[in-house]
Amino acid sequence: MTRHIRFNAFDMNCVAHQSPGLWRHPADRSHRYTDLGYWTELARLLERGLFDGLFIADVLGTYDVYGGTDEAALRQGAQIPVADPLLLVSAMAAATEHLGFGITTGTGFEHPYPFARRLSTLDHLTRGRIGWNVVTGYLPSAARNFGEADQLDHDTRYDHADEYLEVLYKLWEGSWEDDAVVRDAERGIYIDPEKVHHIGHRGPHFTVPGIHLSEPSPQRSPVIYQAGASPRGVRFAAENAEAIFVGPPSKRVLRDTVARIRAALVDAGRDPYSARIYALATIVTDATDEAAAAKHEEYKRYASLEGALVFTSGWMGIDLSRYDLDEPIGNVESNAIRSAVAAFQEADDDGREWRVRDIAEWASIGGLGPRFVGSGESVATQLQEWVAETDVDGFNLAYAVTPGSFEDVITHVVPVLQERGAYPTTYTEGTLRHKLFGKGDRLPDEHRGARYRLGASLSTVTDRYRAYVG
Ligand SMILES: Cc1cc2nc3c(=O)[nH]c(=O)nc-3n(C[C@H](O)[C@H](O)[C@H](O)COP(=O)(O)O)c2cc1C
Predict the structure, then answer these.
(1) Ligand 1: which of 240, 245, 312 to mutate, judged by most atoms within 8 Å of the beta carbon?
(2) What is the domain count for the chain?
(3) pTM greater than 0.90
(4) Measured in angstroms, how far is the CA atom of residue 227 from the centroid of ligand 1?
(5) Which residue among 363, 379, 401 closes a domain?
(6) What is the pLDDT of residue 458?
(7) Ligand 1 atom with the shortest distance to the CA of 246
């Protein structure tokens, strides 16, 4: 059977998400991001295209690494202004039936107790279509505005996130029994107190003795998304994630990354296919290869190299304003940047030495992933090759212009893939987790979160509380 390719739309509650300067293109509507109608129309469009979900990125800081200030980010509208992603979901859920929502929030910026309730609320209101993209943050400017001198160091951020998730799993999986709400009018009992359990969590970062405030929602734990790339990040993803986002620029790097993640899933005691892996990509398509190439050239004319350097400086933690655009990359003092550039160069290798300008051009439309340019047939063929050669499950599609880039994919690429039997023709009924894996609404037994589940471990939960109260 031909393998189905899965699509997610990659967006953010801001203008021109990862395509700096493209907000100037006449077809781009991202400046309407403060209008609820913009989001409900986008959600309906993506559902028409049978996308798995809309994934909304987020940061809680400005990109001020470039030039050491946020001036360039502000001038460019580079993910600033940026509004809250969670508040968009209820309206989009009311406008759709099947589309999933992957919402990003950081583990460093909000206590897990109220956060658990907000996600449970959204899981109820979406009837089980909520996912959470767990990020540990990368912008020092975010940490500073929470009163910290800087962010925690990289691996400590993941250790902190481990406990953050432990608290959440205890609340989502281990506090309320499924039949705790009895709504017994005769006896005047709404909830059976015997069936609601204190979680008794006490750890290095969090103390949460009590019960979850929400009753069990369709999925209990939302579908967990993650995008860790470092060895520590991949281990964290393998223990927690059910959808994993990766951003390698070339097929070879993607193949290695996917293999590394599948092996890490096995090390974590899980099925290697128990997480869907989506590669970041941007598709520029039209009726013919020539029309698509012309569209791509036109987008390039609107793209802002300064905006791209604002982003890449933030992502890599290097101030690229200190270098001339024509400076060879070898002169940039960073191992991180050299290894990233080696990967880009391999994807687009014409033998010349890469300069700072090349990084900016690469990242100026859709961020660090590859760009597929061509007719529906050509793009479908490339995507199928990538899937066959890398074992990736699908693509997380950034836009050049919105909603135009998504409309183009749905008009030109989706029907070709469907004809080839390589794309779904209908949604599976049920929750987002069931749509992704076909195995029910709740976390599978081998998942880390299931360890905190009621049932077998019921007494443990109570014991934990007793231990907590002493
Ligand atoms: C497709 C994709 C989307 C991401 N979205 C966000 C985001 O919205 N917010 C954020 O703070 N980090 C985001 N990240 C960054 C990751 O969470 C993570 O910090 C990064 O991949 C580096 O992983 P590492 O810390 O394990 O090296 C994203 C990464 C990728 C590849």
Answers:
(1) 245
(2) 2
(3) yes
(4) 5
(5) 363
(6) 45
(7) 31
At 149, which amino acid appears? A
Within a domain: 1: no
- By residue count, the chain amounts to 470
Check whether residue 50 and residue 172 sit in a common domain. Answer: yes
- Higher-confidence residue of 353 and 95: namely 95
Residues 342 and 415 in one domain: no
Indicate whether 122 and 181 sit together in one domain. yes
Nearest CA residue ID for atom 27, ligand 1: 230
Same domain membership, residue 427 and residue 340: no
Residue 135 CA to ligand 1 center (angstroms) comes to 6
**262 in helix, strand or coil?**
helix
Q: Average pLDDT in the 86-112 region?
A: 97
User: Can you tell me the mean pLDDT for 17-30?
Assistant: 98
Domain assignment present for 79: yes
Banded model confidence at residue 316, pLDDT cuts 50, 70, 90: confident
* Residues of the domain holding 269: 6-304+369-469
CATH code for the domain in which residue 447 is found: 3.20.20.30
Place 468 in a pLDDT band, splitting at 50, 70 and 90.
low
Please name the helix (run of DSSP H) or strand (run of DSSP E) that holds residue 374, with its range, or none: strand 371-375
Q: Both 139 and 176 in a single domain?
A: yes
CA 327 – CA 364 distance, rounded (Å): 18
Atom of ligand 1 at shortest distance to CA of 236? Answer: 26
Does ligand 1 come within 6 angstroms of the Cβ of 229? yes
For residues 417 and 380, is the Cβ–Cβ distance under 8 A? yes
- Ligand 1 close to Cβ of residue 314 (< 6 A): no
Determine the atom of ligand 1 nearest the C-alpha atom of 157: 25
Q: Do both 379 and 258 map to the same domain?
A: yes
| Residue 456 included in any domain | yes
228 and 316: one domain? no
Residue 57 Cβ contacting ligand 1 at under 6 Å: yes
Average pLDDT, the chain: 93
Please indicate, yes or no, whether residues 40 and 144 belong to a single structural domain of this protein: yes
287 C-beta neighbours (distance < 10 Å), count:
12
CA 389 to centroid of ligand 1, rounded, Å? 24
Whole-number Å distance, alpha carbon 46 to ligand 1 midpoint, is 23
Q: Tell me the two tokens of residue 361.
A: 């051009």
In a domain, 39, yes or no: yes
C-alpha of 117 from chain center: 20
Contacts of 299 (CB under 8 A, 6+ apart): 19, 22, 25, 284, 365, 400, 401
Paired tokens of 169: 């799993």
